[in-house]
């Protein structure tokens, strides 16, 4: 018997081979040794009412095989059926859809908007091209090309467009265009406050004011167009303002400022470095001790930081000591002195000490200078005192 372990049937005599199957048995091809044929190559066509097992080849000639829900159209597989993915989906190209539905994102409005479905948000039917990306209990209605990125209980409404709330709690943009709230609590942009922004803080309001910004703080209400608002502003670099600077309910703190200039100034300011120097005697007459050698009134309020004394002619034998009295009370717990043979208090063996509770000197306060001690051998001449500090108003 011929060996049929590898049987090849050409198209020319394929009709000579017929394997039939009854309803109750399966017929198998065997070779001459009684072993089943393990490989059958058919170069023609195969026709069968049913087939089980596997075949080798690309299957391009197979017909009558169901293709599932996907149909190859050009270079893409398409389906008109719903597709559910229970695992992850990685897309390396763009996604195009009329609406997004699912456990995290959903289409809304006209289908061009994306809404987080986990955060229990409230969405109107007239929003277009907008997004609520996250957070909790946020609301958007009647807005186009707007977004709420995070936070809770934030609201954009009012039949306008191109507004955004980045986060925070209880913030509202109502009937504005190009408006922005960065965060904070219970801040409000309303009534056509177009192009305005609140960056943070609490309880701040911009209402019917355009192109203004509240930088932060609490309970600030913007009242002017094209204006920036802050409760306290610290400028770390040299700054030049071409417009006006308005300080409401406070003062300008000039700590560390070496120069300040303005074409027009009104109001008050604090901590502008200032020096007030005055002569207690003439230049040539020997000093004498006594109270109220000089009396004057302060031309402005100041915070005192240092008191200095100097002499034109040095004393001999002992130290020159002076005292400063404000409204009848000494402000020096250790009085200012110039050592014998010296010309300045900066070299004194005992440094001056200002009473901590007496550093603040009011505008128009009475100042009296006492000379408590002079040189025992040579009195000294030309005494001058210098008050250094920061001007308040």
Q: What features would you describe in this structure?
A:
The structure is a single chain. Helix content is 0%, strand content 31%. The protein is an all-beta fold. The protein has three domains: 6-42, no CATH class; 105-229, Serralysin-like metalloprotease, C-terminal (Alkaline Protease, subunit P, domain 1, 2 Solenoid); 274-391, Jelly Rolls (Sandwich), CATH 2.60.120. The strands form nine sheets. The protein has a nine-stranded mixed beta sheet, with no helix packed on it. It has a seven-stranded parallel beta sheet with strand order 7-9-12-15-17-19-21, with no helix packed on it. Strands 26, 28, 29, 31 and 34 form a five-stranded antiparallel beta sheet that branches. A hairpin with a 4-residue loop joins strand 5 (105-108) and strand 6. The termini are far apart. Residues 1-5 and 9-25 have low confidence and may be disordered.
Q: Which regions contain 5 or more consecutive residues with pLDDT less than 50?
A: 1-5, 9-25
What is the percentage of strand-forming residues? Answer: 25-35%
Number of strands: 35
Distance N terminus to C terminus?
A: 124 Å
In helices, the fraction of residues equals under 10%
Sequence of strands across the biggest β-sheet: 5-6-8-11-14-16-18-20-22
**Biggest sheet layout:** 9 strands, mixed
| Rg result | 46 Å
How many separate helices? Answer: 0
Shape: elongated
Mean pLDDT: 81
CATH architecture of the largest domain: 2 Solenoid
């Amino acid at each position: 018997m011929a060996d049929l372990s590898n049987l090849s049937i050409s198209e020319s005599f394929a009709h000579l081979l017929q394997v039939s199957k009854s309803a109750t048995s399966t017929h198998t091809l065997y070779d001459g040794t009684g072993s089943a044929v393990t490989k059958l190559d058919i170069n023609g066509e195969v026709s069968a009412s049913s087939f089980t097992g596997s075949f080798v080849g690309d299957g391009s000639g197979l017909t009558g095989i169901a293709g599932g829900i996907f149909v190859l159209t050009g270079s893409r597989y398409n389906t008109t059926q719903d597709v559910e993915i229970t695992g992850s989906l990685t897309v390396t190209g763009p996604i195009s859809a009329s609406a997004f539905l699912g456990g995290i994102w959903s289409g809304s409005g006209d289908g061009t908007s994306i809404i987080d479905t986990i955060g229990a948000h409230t969405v109107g039917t007239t929003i277009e091209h907008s997004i609520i990306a996250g957070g909790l209990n946020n609301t958007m209605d009647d807005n186009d090309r707007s977004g709420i990125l995070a936070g809770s209980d934030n609201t954009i409404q009012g039949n306008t467009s191109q507004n955004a709330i980045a986060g925070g709690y209880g913030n509202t943009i109502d009937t504005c265009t190009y408006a922005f709230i960065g965060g904070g609590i219970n801040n409000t942009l309303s009534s056509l406050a177009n192009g305005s922004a609140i960056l943070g803080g609490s309880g701040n309001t911009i209402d019917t004011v355009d192109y203004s910004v509240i930088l932060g703080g609490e309970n600030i209400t913007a009242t002017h167009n094209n204006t920036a608002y802050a409760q306290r502003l610290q400028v770390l670099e040299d700054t030049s303002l071409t417009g006006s600077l308005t300080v409401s309910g406070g003062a300008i703190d000039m700590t560390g400022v070496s120069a300040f200039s303005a074409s027009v100034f009104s109001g008050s300011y604090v901590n502008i470095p200032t020096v007030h120097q005055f002569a207690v005697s003439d230049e040539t007459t020997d000093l004498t001790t006594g109270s109220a050698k000089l009396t004057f009134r302060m031309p402005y309020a100041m915070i005192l930081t240092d008191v200095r004394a100097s002499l034109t002619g040095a004393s001999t034998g002992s130290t020159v000591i002076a005292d400063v009295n404000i409204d009848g009370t000494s402000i020096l717990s250790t009085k200012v002195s110039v050592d014998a043979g010296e010309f300045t208090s900066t070299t004194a063996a005992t440094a001056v000490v200002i009473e901590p509770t007496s550093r603040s000197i009011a505008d128009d306060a009475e100042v009296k200078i006492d000379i408590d001690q002079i040189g025992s051998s040579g009195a000294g001449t030309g005494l001058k005192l210098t008050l250094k500090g920061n001007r308040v108003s």
